[in-house]
Amino acid sequence: MPEKIVLLDTEILSDDWGKLSRVTLDYRRDDGKVQRLSREIYDHGNAAAILLYNPETGSVLLVRQFRYPVMANGDPAFLLEVCAGLLDGDDPQTCAAREALEETGHAPRDIVHVSDAYMSPGSVTEKVSLFLGHYGADTYRTAGGGLEQEGEELEVVELPFETAFKMIGTAELTDAKTILLLQHLALTLAAQ
Questions:
Q1: Residue 83, SS3?
Q2: Mean pLDDT of the 162-176 span
Q3: What predicted TM-score, i.e. pTM, was given to this entire model?
Q4: Domain boundaries, the chain
Q5: What tens digit of pLDDT does each residue of 14-38 get?
Q6: Which fold has domain 47-191?
Q7: Which long-range contacts (CB under 8 A, 24 or more apart) does 10-13 make?
């Protein structure tokens, strides 16, 4: 496959919270014709996300937070999501556990890796490692809510799993990582 692609130029357009680059490449099509492509890509690092599930009560913990890009696209600015964050030098599982504690106040147990996924591979380099973990009264440490220095002000929301899962179909949940993890949990529970 690499012989199909020749990178010609990379130009850094912005390097602030993340890096926005424009790349120019030649792509050799299957018919042998070479097509010059220009693409902008955004890189702010890889991330991890975790869905917290309480097997005793059948509930999940999600967080509601402000998302400016969603608002800029004309949708409600506050999304209900699983806990997530950038790796910041940690391995994905450590990151997932750290984010769960910061955002929900729970130190999850029984963490299981589900998969890795690109959320928007046409323009964003971010790969998100997805996890499922358990929570309960024994995992509670703090009130959560995120870190003010990171601009976070999160509402912790506990819902019955069935309620959260139905919110996918009603468009009350539109975050891809949350949808993937809820669907994984649905499949896992159905197989038991």
A1: strand
A2: 96
A3: 0.92
A4: 2-43, 47-191
A5: 999 899 999 999 999 999 999 999 9
A6: Nucleoside Triphosphate Pyrophosphohydrolase (3.90.79)
A7: 13/40
